[in-house]
Design brief:
Belongs to the HpcH/HpaI aldolase family. Keywords: Lyase, Metal-binding. GO terms for molecular function: lyase activity. Pfam families: HpcH_HpaI. This is Aldolase/citrate lyase family protein. The chain is an alpha/beta fold. It has one domain: TIM Barrel. Helix content is about 50%, strand content about 15%. It is built from 13 helices and 8 strands. An 8-stranded parallel beta barrel has the order 1-2-3-4-5-6-7-8, surrounded by 7 helices. Helix 12 links the parallel strand 7 and strand 8. Helix 2 packs parallel to helix 3 and helix 4 packs parallel to helix 5. The longest helix has 17 residues. The radius of gyration is 17 Å and the shape is globular.
């Protein structure tokens, strides 16, 4: 099957990506059913491992949302398992150099474009019997830029041909600039966002960003990003729970 995120990108339509950080399949299904275009299973900061990610990917693939994974690190073994488990795109944290980006995209593509090993257990169930023929072009590869080093190397990172684009990590970037993790409104951080977004737009590359607030998400939408994450499942659960309790407690 085609990757709907690529279709939305070609149509220049903003995609909304949900964030599944709690290792439970019902919750992943519920998040996916909220109307997101994609849902990312977060193996970096989610407190669960690959075995728990599999039923989450099964649950997401019962909906229209594209199943994505943020891997825990830039590892061929883990990325191969997640693609075999049916992830249709990988967001890889902490890509700081062109070499990091090359290693990442090689793990996501079969030869001659990469070194992915063959064994797409659930990949064929989700992607279809012709999975092998189209996997190299359907699977989406997004490198996280979230350090000053990554920011400085962004042009080189984006020059890697098989990299589809970047996903900006505002908290780690703010921390690396000596600021608090929620300093996403700071001028220096915002300028970095704008710089990265413009670089991607000039090169026809995909750009997504995690948003810590609705206001930030609106600003990123105005900058023309391709994909927005409006918060994690846990953050949204907390926000609405505390909002209702505050109203009812008076
Ligand atoms: C960050 O803000 O650093 C992230 O990784 C968000 O996903
Ligand atoms: Mg991060």
């Amino acid at each position: 099957r085609e990757n709907n995120l690529r279709t939305l990108f070609a149509q220049k339509k903003l995609a909304f990506n949900g964030w599944a950080s709690i290792g439970n399949s019902f919750l992943a299904e519920l998040v996916a059913d909220c109307g997101y275009d994609a849902v990312t299973v977060d193996l970096q900061h989610g407190l669960f491992s690959v075995e728990a990610a599999v039923p989450m990917l099964q649950a997401i693939s019962a909906t229209k949302a594209v199943p994505l994974v943020r891997c825990s690190e830039n590892s061929l073994g883990e990325i191969n398992k997640l693609l075999d488990a049916g992830a249709y795109g990988i967001i890889c944290p902490l890509i700081n150099t062109k070499e990091d980006a090359e290693k990442f995209v090689r793990a996501c593509h079969y030869s001659p474009r990469g070194g992915r090993s063959y064994g797409p257990a659930r990949g064929v169930l989700y992607g279809g019997k012709d999975y092998f023929e189209h996997a190299n072009r359907t699977i989406l590869t997004l490198a996280m830029i979230e350090t000053r080093q990554g920011l400085a190397a962004a042009e080189e990172i984006l020059s890697v041909p098989d990299l589809d684009g970047i996903f900006i990590g505002p908290s780690d970037l703010a921390i690396d600039m000596g600021l608090a993790p929620d300093a996403w409104n700071d001028d220096k951080v915002d300028q970095a966002f704008q710089h990265l977004i413009k670089l991607c737009q000039a090169r026809g590359k995909y750009v997504g960003i995690f948003c810590g607030s609705v206001e930030m998400a609106e600003r990123m939408k105005a900058y023309g990003v391709d994909m927005l994450v409006p918060g994690t499942d846990a953050q949204l659960l907390r926000a609405e729970t505390t909002r209702r309790l505050n109203i009812l407690r008076g």
